[in-house]
Amino acid sequence: MDVNQAKQEQLLALKVMRLTKPTLFTNMPVTCEDRDLPGELFGRLMKEDPSTIKGAETLMLGEMLTLPQNFGNIFLGETFSSYISVHNDSTQVVKDILVKADLQTSSQRLNLSASNSAVTELKPECCIDDVIHHEVKEIGTHILVCAVSYTTQTGEKLYFRKFFKFQVLKPLDVKTKFYNAESDLSSVTDEVFLEAQIQNITTSPMFMEKVSLEPSMMYNVTELNTVASGDDGVSTFGKMSYLQPMDTRQYLYCLKPKPEFAEKAGVIKGVTVIGKLDIVWKTNLGERGRLQTSQLQRMAPGYGDVRLSLEMIPDTVNLEEPFDITCKITNCSERTMDLVLEMCNTCSIHWCGVSGRQLGKLSPSSSLSLPLRVLSSVQGLQSISGLRLTDTFLKRTYEYDDIAQVCVVCPYMDPES
User: Fold this and answer.
1) pLDDT tens digits, residue range 100-116?
2) In what side-by-side order are the strands of the sheet with 219-223?
């Protein structure tokens, strides 16, 4: 066929329209003072305008809805809906019509057609309609490929395609921070506090319907985003949970290892899986979006080979009077240790007992409780420091400062002085 020959005219016409919620119509009110030349002309025209609110004509927001004039923005987590119509513009009956809609992304090609079976025939001025839906899960360029194949009355098979390209944008910027804290003095395991910073990077406000954390199988989660008020808790963000454009909101969660995983979680090495965030929002007139993060991971706190934690210490002690504390020593390594305890005095803290005491062998992942006696020669808030552990097998020494703090008071001082 000659390349200059005119392209064959198709008997069918393909129309594609994105389905979105309408928006409220806005107008620009024009007013003037009564003494100006137009007088009451502008006010009368606004009252006669059907798009204005009766009795509040100067408000920009009207009572009418307007359909979108362009494709608009599509954000990750929203549902893309489109209306596809194939119309027979010819004067003859067309047979075996097959309409196929595929969505091409950077990583995959998805079939969105509701039915893959062909329509037997399509009479003149008739049409085939279809509505497709797809939850957008990738950022970047998307191409909607609509293909139509059919057969004419003469038996000729025809085929054509149309491409519709659009960009999927990121609606939220999510940042996470992890904080480690000891769950209690008698436990080796740690609680984990997760701070999630969520920023609205779109140009319209969002209603945050739900922000929750789905923990991994090792943890129980407690949300810290409510304030106790009566029987029910009140959200720290108020009753109207709107997030304005470019605003950031912080959510806090506490994760505690389940009892059956507590001992394993306390000495676990490397990366620990915490869970994933589930965020649900609404925009405009109720358009819903949902976003789930990938599995959040944090580095377990580095205890070294030997961890020393505090099991018992009094809140307040008397000046220059001995008091008892209990420490817990845990072997976090994969080898057996032979430990020696040394107690070094500081300018305010003085240890009572013999330094250089043999603690004996400590197998991997095991622990022992160690009662100690100490006194303070300086009143006020004092830091317990000066303990040193030495592994005689490897000749390796571990020093521990700022183990805990205690309030030292003078029992002979007049409280009113």
Assistant:
1) 999 999 888 999 887 77
2) 172-182, 190-200, 248-257, 219-223
3-state secondary structure 275-318: EEEEEEEEECCCEEEEEECCCEEEECCCCCCEEEEEEECCCEEE
Q: Which of 372, 396, 393, 277 is nearest to 322 (CA)?
A: 372
Q: What is the pLDDT of residues 123-133, one digit of tens each?
A: 988 998 989 99
Entry pTM: 0.64
Label residue 334 left, alpha or beta by phi (over 0 means left) and psi (-120 to 50 means alpha): alpha
Q: What is d(CA 272, CA 251) in angstroms, rounded to the nearest whole number?
A: 21
Give the model confidence (pLDDT) of 227-265 as tens digits.
Answer: 876 666 777 887 777 899 999 999 999 988 777 766 554
Identify residue 41 by its one-letter amino acid code. Answer: L
For the chain, what's the residue count? 417
Amino acid at 314: P
CB 344 within 8 A of CB 374: no
Amino acid type, 91: T
Pull the structure tokens for residue 133: 């839906």
Sequence-distant (6+) residues with CB within 8 A of 241 are 207, 208, 209, 235
CB atoms within 10 A of CB 69: 6
Nearest Cα to Cα of residue 150 among 141, 161, 159, 138:
159
Distance CA 340, CA 243 (A): 57
- Give the integer Cα–Cα distance in Å for 178 and 213: 13
| Residues 16-53 as b or e (16 or more Cβ within 10 Å = b) | eebebeeeeeeeeeeeeeeeeeeeeeebeebeeeeebe
Half-sphere exposure of 1 (CA within 13 A, CB side): 6
Q: What is the pLDDT of residues 314-333, one digit of tens each?
A: 989 999 899 999 988 888 78
